[in-house]
Request: fold
Amino acid sequence: MNVIFLGPPGAGKGTQAKRLAARFGIPQLSTGDILRKAVASGTPLGRQAKALMDAGKLVPDEVVNGIIEEALDSPEAAKGFLFDGFPRTVAQATALDEMLRRRGKKIEHVILLEVPTDVLVERLSGRQTCPVDQTPYGKDNPPKRPGFCDKDGAKLVVRPDDMPDRVRQRMVEYLDKTALLTGYYKTRGVVRPVDGVGTVDEVEKRIGQALR
Reply:
């Protein structure tokens, strides 16, 4: 199964992607995680990405695409993969299609999590994140012990990106760029719209139904 998760910031992509990846035994390919792994491994592309990040520069598409291609060739991705945070632009989607075509593969499902802007602002503005493993907590999935991560006990923090004014700015950026991907994949008949409002379990159930 080859899947992409799309949706605005705070829609729950990361949380649901982890659950789906575990359910089907396929790797969750998050751009940030892949970049960090490439940097830690010291691959040529990883070293190039590290130099750019250390200089405070954006990693260009050609480097990101190269690192994604390496991830697609890993043994873990042999029976499928799940992209979370990639592609972000139509140019990246086009490049991904070409990578997959060369490998005789294609994107089979694009899960589009739909959440109203007002709900996202409320959700993200009240969100706390574990600084160790980046697990998010909020109204729909509060920590068992208020203010602390369930997994490692780290004190939760509010990220600058989750302040109300920044959340609305991120929504504008999403609508300007990433939302164009919806139209790109709709022409391929693979978009599966899913209502992203509700508990984590409720949304997971809807995703399962959309994939049938």
In short: The first strand starts at residue 2 and ends at 6. Strands lie at 2-6, 28-30, 81-84, 109-114, 128-129, 136-137, 191-195. The first helix runs from residue 13 to 24.
